Amino acid sequence: MTDVLIAPAGLANVVVADTEIGDVRGDEGFYHYREFSAVDLARTKTFDEVWFLFVHGHLPDAAELDSFVTATRALRTLPDEISGILATSAMLGGERELLTGLRTMMSALGPTFGVRPLWDSDAQTRQFDALRATALTPTILAALHRIRTGQEPLAPRDDLGVAANWLYLITGDEPSREHARAVEQYLILTMDHGFNASTFTARVIASTGADVHAALCGALGAFSGPLHGGAPDRALDSLDEIVAHGDALTWAREQVAQRRRIMGFGHAVYRTEDPRSVLLREVAQGLGGPTVDAAIVAEQAIVQALAQAHPDHPRYANVEFYAGVVMDACGIPRSMFTPTFAVSRTVGWSANILEQANSRKIIRPAARYVGPAPTVG
Question: Where is the active site (predicted)?
Fold first, then answer.
């Protein structure tokens, strides 16, 4: 029998691939895209500039950016022939489950566009398929939301950047520059974050040679879980409970005493403050408002209660906590918090899918059988 290595639960700290896309240094509270600090990029660059970085491996000059923006904005419009599927998909799942509809649409668009398996496609074709899927994701999600709420879907506007267009497609109103930039910074911060569950799922599917849309559907399935992408709205729900309770520290201590998980706090990788949360806290404070004020008080109380209960393992606010606060301040309804996360993460998924497609080796780990002994003979 071939010797096998027993991996820790959840594959924690197990390296399964090489990547040039980015890395997360949990002990340092730092993560990067290529050679650039992701937080610095969010502070200084636009969504399109960072998207270009993921696709081409370097930041664009002015001419490259102009060409990229023109090309990707031309890919935002949904084909007319899938309008019936769009209407049906909008009614799938529960109130906060638009990712179900997005998975259905992403699956349907594959054959509509004639997308071929990664195994059978050249690099240029694979890149175009990924760009188109990423460009269409906000259009699909906003259309699903509007149909579900009894409104007509809107056509994307070529004069608006990704974040401003996203807010327009959801609300029907052109957003303020302040709100568009706040959402843009959030989107840049969450494009990629190491080999998280959804990214790893996308790469496993890509390793089989399946098409881009199949891999994105798998990523979306993993992403829909409340322990992954489904957390921003739940974190804001907790903030509502705190406000209703009236005493953030008492509420937090009660949750800890009852062994309830406080959504928006703690992270599988970071042992310091989540750098994404640090910047989003600044963005939230710049936006202001009673929800932001309540969030600042709540964060301090929860961190204190968790530190008292687990002095050797402090837990801090993660990206979901202030993500919900920022999106709420910018007028995004809670049902669209996780979809907004998906708009950005599709960039990272696509980059990982394309990187994995360069390998011809299928990902095929082993499992340790622990059931009843088999009958032999």
Answer: 267, 320
What whole-number distance in Å separates Cα of residue 216 and Cα of residue 342? Answer: 10
According to DSSP, the residues that pair with 313 across neighbouring strands are none
**Do residues 69 and 209 both lie within one domain?**
yes
Select the more confidently predicted residue: 310 or 31: 31
Domain that holds residue 271: 233-329
The β-bridge relationship of strands 30-33 and 22-25 is antiparallel
User: What pLDDT band is residue 27 in, cutting at 50, 70 and 90?
Assistant: confident
Residues 348, 200 share a domain: yes
CA distances from 21 to 41, 88, 263, 301, 354 (A): 14, 36, 28, 36, 11
Measured CA to CA, the distance from residue 255 to residue 241 in angstroms comes to: 11
Q: Is the pLDDT of residue 1 over 50?
A: no
Residue 265 is given by DSSP the state B
Task: Tell me the CATH number at 174.
Answer: 1.10.580.10
Of residues 196, 201, 146, the one with CA closest to residue 168: 146
d(CA 47, CA 164): 11
Report, as residue numbers or ranges, the catalytic residues.
Answer: 267, 320
**Both 205 and 87 in a single domain?**
yes
DSSP 176: P
Give the DSSP letter of residue 118.
G
Residue 85 falls within a domain, yes or no? yes
Local structure of 317: helix, strand or coil: strand
DSSP characters for 5-19? Answer: --PPGGGTT------
